Amino acid sequence: MYSRQKRAHWSYWLGAGLLLACALVFQFGTGSSVVLAETRATAHVDQVILNSNISASSLRLLSRAIERASSDGAHALVIEVDSPGGDLDSMKAMTQKILASTVPVVAYVTPAGGRAASAAAFVTLSAQIAAMSPTTRIGAASPVTSTGGDIESTLKAKITNDLVASMTSIQQRYGRNVSLAVRMVTNASSYDDATAIRSHIVDLGAPNLSSLLTSIDGRQVRLNNGQQVRLQTADVVIQDVSATPADVFYNFLLDPTVIFFLFLVAMLGVYLEVSHPGAIVPGVTGAIALLLFLFGAGSLAPNWAGLALMLLAFVLLVLDVRLPTHGALTIGAVVSLIVGSLIFFDSGGSYNAAYLNPWIIYGAGVVVGLMGLGIVAYAVRVRRAPVRSGQEAMYGAKAVALTPLQPEGRVSYQGENWAALLDVPDLAVDSGTELEIVAVEGLCLRVRPLVTPGVDTGKIAPPLE
After folding, report:
1. How far is it, in rounded angstroms, from Cα 114 to Cα 135?
2. Is the pTM of this model over 0.85?
3. What contacts 106, CB < 8 A, 6 or more positions away?
4. Contact 182, 168 (CB under 8 A)
5. With CB atoms counted within 10 Å of each terminal CB, which end of the chain scores lower, N or C?
């Protein structure tokens, strides 16, 4: 009766929860439609802020902003830029998104003291309108490694020539200064807002967003499809396209340091589950971390040969617990983890992208090695320790005769009364004699005297006739 009532109780709450979820989904969908309809009816521009590294996360945010501006009837999309740059792949994808946008895009370097450096300079200049606020700067777009070092000469020449061609086509498309913009790539030149405006590297300057929207009102811009659009940006409502919790979490997962630690948690979690079966929590934690690691690693364009070495490190750790190698495989696992991680993340070789500090890898290798050796040492002690349970634990244990054994009788073992049989049939012992268990035969113990015959004659009876 109780089980049926409990199931009915949970069924009630489950049903109520499903109804509530459906109601929320319906309300959200209806509310979204109403908001979208109201937004379309209001003259507005959408605004998105790029104030972090140019990465897959910022590409995701920009793509969503362009899609929303295209669907909600925005007169333009304003991108506020304050970024030190980022990786080339994300930058190229972002410039392509902006150039192909069906909504006019206005890039605005702000606030005061902000910058559009490196990859962010390309993102800014790819917009139909590029503007800067006072005391901002743009440029320094020469390709370097993620650590700021130089690239090998031949490869650097290829990347530089490609970036020069891209910058030239962008500036020619909008009738801006090509030569000075190209020097951002070839000479790492950087320009303050006054120089950039005066030299027509960007279109104009404005002290704030409202002033910018007023200044560009009525300007004509040409979209990618060749359509000429007259901007209507005066006295419009500004609507933010902000990062969602999913965007924040996605950005968090793209950090190479986070990805590396997710792999460590996955490896150690599964390793602890294998070495201590039934623990459950380490295994579940490791599985979740592994899935998050694979999700984040896919955005890095990593060297998968390095991942093979990292997985080999895990295999070696597990084998060292199972085999009598006494820590040799753990040392190999540490080497494999360090080398594999350096190759997988290619630290220092991903141009302008976030990178993983090699010292973090070295430190993690040391920690994993110490943990592995500790677990191996514990496993060796357990294997060498005498068995403390079951029949095997009774072998060699002490028992005391409760009755004379001639050669059968009763003995006491750990407070229990057992039938016993002397291992030497032609001997007999008195009650109270200390005996050693030599075998367990069902419910009968085979025993022998602890005292050598003839030493303590009071306890050893003469041979039976």
Report:
1. 8
2. no
3. 45, 76, 77, 78, 79, 127, 128, 129, 131, 212, 216, 233
4. yes
5. C
Nearest to 184 by CA among 174, 53, 173, 195: 195
Q: Could you tell me which residues come within 8 angstroms of residue 98 by beta carbon, excluding any fewer than 6 positions away? A: 62, 66, 79, 105, 107, 123, 126, 127
Residues 6+ apart with CB under 8 A from 125: 107, 138, 167, 170, 171, 174, 176, 181, 201, 202
Q: Could you say which architecture CATH assigns to the domain 391-461?
A: Beta Barrel (2.40)
| Other CB atoms within 10 Å distance of the CB of residue 223 | 16
Alpha helices in 42-55 (DSSP H): none
Q: Same topology for domains 29-244 and 391-461, yes or no?
A: no
In sequence order, which residues have a C-beta less than 8 Å from that of residue 300 and are 6 or more positions away? 254, 256, 259, 345, 350, 353
The DSSP secondary-structure symbol of 258 reads H
Query: What is the predicted pLDDT for the residue at 145?
Result: 52
Query: Span 343-364, mean pLDDT?
Result: 66
Q: Which helix (H) or strand (E) holds 34?
A: helix 2-41
Can you list the alpha helix ranges (DSSP code H) found in 79-177? Answer: 88-99, 119-125, 153-174
All structural domains of the chain with their residue ranges: 29-244, 255-384, 391-461
Containing 117, the helix (H) or strand (E) segment is strand 115-117
Q: Does residue 425 or residue 423 have the better pLDDT?
A: 423
Q: To which residue do tokens 């750790």 refer?
A: 317
Is residue 36 helix, strand or coil? helix
Name, of 3-7, 9-13, 157-161, 244-248, the range with top average pLDDT: 157-161
Average pLDDT over all residues of the chain: 78
Q: 34 CB contacts (<8 Å, ≥6 apart)?
A: none
Chain segment 186-195, per-residue pLDDT in tens? 888 899 999 9
Which backbone phi and psi does 437 adopt, to 5 degrees? -80, 125
Q: Are the C-beta atoms of residues 268 and 368 closer than 8 Å to each other? A: yes
Q: Which amino acid is residue 65, in one-letter code?
A: A
Gap between the Cα atoms of 412 and 100, Å rounded: 91
What tokens were used for 343? Answer: 């190759």
| Residue 122 CB contacts under 8 Å (≥ 6 apart), including other chains | 91, 95, 141, 163, 166, 167, 170
Type of residue at 60: R
CA–CA separation, 195 and 429 (whole Å): 111
Query: Which residues are paired to 447 by β-bridges?
Result: 422, 437
- Maximum alpha-carbon separation in the chain: 129
DSSP 420: E
- CA dist 146 and 356 (Å) reads 9
* Helices and strands counted in the chain (H then E): 14, 18
CATH code, residues 29-244: 3.90.226.10
Single out the residue of 79, 82, 85 nearest to residue 66, CA to CA. Answer: 79
